[in-house]
Design goal:
Layout lengths: L3 H30 L3 H27 L19 H28 L3 H30 L4 H11 L12
Helix pairs in contact: 1-2, 1-3, 2-5, 3-4
The structure holds magnesium ion.
The site of magnesium ion (MG) has 5 residues, from helix 1 and helix 2.
Length: 170
């Protein structure tokens, strides 16, 4: 059985992950409006990943005998100045999520909740990758500033991203 404090914190994280999906789906629409279909594909996969993160937390709460009491999802930003600005926002958002995961780990330790702490290890590792992915694209966009052909090359590269569901039990 999960403690009420931990259940509530994970419940809030389900909301944060779905809000992340909402933000990235908003970016899909932004990139489509610019005809950057590869960028849009990359963000579509990102959206799917965030939903899978939410489901991981959702299923965990259920397995521990708690209930996920779903809350309203805050509206995402809908407009960005440039593809670079959008990816900078994505990178900043992932840093925020990393901070939230770290806080959950601290709470699990306070609560002596080993099962939650072990479950959260996956997210600690995942966040390293999430930040590196977003920052990597920010850096590429910065390097190609002033070279308009670059963005179309990057668009082709980002089009190749496919969604791979996390392994069962992982
Ligand atoms: Mg996430």
């Amino acid at each position: 059985m999960i403690s009420e404090k931990m259940r509530k914190a994970i419940n809030d994280q389900i909301n944060a992950e779905i809000h992340s999906a909402y933000l990235y789906l908003s970016m899909v629409s932004y990139f489509k409006s610019l005809n950057l279909d590869g960028f849009a594909q990359w963000m579509t996969v990102q959206t799917q990943e965030e939903i899978s993160h939410a489901m991981k937390f959702f299923n965990f709460v259920d397995e521990r005998g708690g209930r996920a009491l779903l809350q309203p999802i805050a509206g995402p930003d809908v407009e960005w100045e440039s593809p670079l600005a959008a990816f900078e926002a994505a990178y900043k958002h992932e840093q925020y999520i990393t901070g939230r995961i770290d806080n959950l780990v601290q709470l699990a330790r306070q609560e002596k909740d080993t099962a939650s702490e072990i479950m959260l290890q996956w997210f600690v590792t995942e966040q390293v990758e999430e930040e590196a992915n977003a920052d990597g694209i920010v850096q590429k966009l910065k390097m190609m500033a002033g070279a308009p052909g670059g963005i179309f090359m990057l668009d082709r590269e980002l089009a190749a991203r496919v969604f791979t569901p996390p392994a069962a039990g992982a």
